[in-house]
Amino acid sequence: MFCDKAEVKIKAGNGGDGIASFLHEIYKEFGGPDGGDGGKGGDVIFSVDDNLNTLYYFKTHHQLSAENGERGKRKKSHGKNGKDLIVKVPRGTVVMDTKTGKEIVDMSEVNKYIVAYGGEGGYGNAHFVSSVRQTPRVAELGEPGEEFLVTLELKMIADVGLIGLPNVGKSTFLSVVSAAKPKIADYEFTTLVPNLGVIEPGSFESETGFIAADIPGLIEGASKGRGLGDEFLRHIERTKILVHFLDATHEDLRSDYLVIRKELKDYVADLTDKAEIVVINKIDAISPEELKIKMSKAQTVVKSKILTISAAAHKNIPSLIHEIETKLKKTKRSTRSKIEKAKSIKEFTLKDVKGYNLFEIEKQKNYYKITGHKIEKFAVRTDFSDKYAFTRFKDIIKKTGIEKELRRQGAEKGDKIIVAGKEFKL
């Protein structure tokens, strides 16, 4: 069953906890600390499967979780790493963070991508042995894996998008020039899902061949959800050019053309900048004189030359194929130039200047909040209920200058401090 949008919860594996243990074996008087590190949690990895063309799997699988890392073991044995979860998706799937609406990855550009990272395993006490600390009793907790809600959108990858009002002959054209078998009937909305067709080199004098997508018929208000709605307009986003079909048997081709152009413009991503070829189809159903009059009126709003064909009668199709391939060549050259220009510009972000050791302290009504990558990482890995682990954390607070800054801002002994969602008293 076709499905091009789904929402799913992603959960990477948690890192395993490190353990604090000491070697106790006969004939080994000074066994020492032997607690092993916890294993890393598994990642959630999206992988392209070119045999897939729908997101229906995610309609019944709403949560995807990778395996947790195992707890560390005695004798300095490392806990087993959690298995990565490989999630197969169709090429052209866009993964977005549902909460922020930001794009995480476009799976038309990569074959594999780590969407959620598993947590690192915590260190066991064997890790903390040093010349001045012979018997550490400290062990770290594993870090939690990343967890969030994502929205998946499938945007078909095609060179050419066939657009127009319902029942103007797009499906007929695709069935004639390719091996695609879209549903064809003499009533509106026979096409309920986008159809892809491959036009092979040599077919109707094609030189290079291309992929075309038959987009379900649009009507006035489609960009706002009317009719089949804007659910299928997203499939036009990826196409390099549009072939706009008009029906020669309609009375006002000028009005038909403007209706579709308005919907393209009103869509969330303005699609009117795409290269366009306008075609009047079904010319075998009207007289040459009537066609000339209708074509003349339509030309008043169409900037480019209008082509005329009959998909059903196979008339003038080679001319349209040639025009499509010519337009595609120009578009590809223009796109390549824009990409090369974009690559030459370095975009700087906060990550380029933000230090790993930086921290901030924000004074709230009845507590102090500490933020910063390094100190939050330490807090997550510290079991505050363990006196040895907590003592180590307090020592880190002191050595990094955080305690000094807290004092400077007026914090006193016994005041509540919060870091990474955990709280303690100064």
CATH class of the largest domain reads Alpha Beta
Name of the CATH homologous superfamily of the largest domain: P-loop containing nucleotide triphosphate hydrolases
What percentage of amino acids are in beta strands? 15-25%
What is the makeup of the main sheet? 6 strands, mixed
Which class do the helix and strand fractions yield? Answer: alpha/beta
Low-confidence segments, given as residue ranges, are 184-192, 221-229, 335-346
Number of strands: 18
**Cα gyration radius (Å):** 31 Å
Question: Can you give the helix content as a percent range?
Answer: 10-25%
CATH architecture of the largest domain: 3-Layer(aba) Sandwich
- What average pLDDT do the residues reach? 85
Output the strand order for the largest sheet: 10-11-9-12-13-14
Gist?
The protein is an alpha/beta fold and 426 residues long. It contains eight helices and 18 strands.
Describe the structure.
This protein is an alpha/beta fold. It folds into three domains: 154 residues, Distorted Sandwich (Spo0b-associated Gtp-binding Protein, Chain: A), CATH 2.70.210.12; 177 residues, Rossmann fold; 72 residues, GMP Synthetase, Chain A, domain 3 (2-Layer Sandwich), CATH 3.30.300. Helix content is 22%, strand content 21%. The strands form four sheets. The protein has a six-stranded mixed β-sheet, sandwiched between helices. Strands 3-1-8-5-6 form a five-stranded mixed β-sheet, with no helix packed on it. α3 runs parallel beside α4. It is elongated, with a radius of gyration of 31 Å.
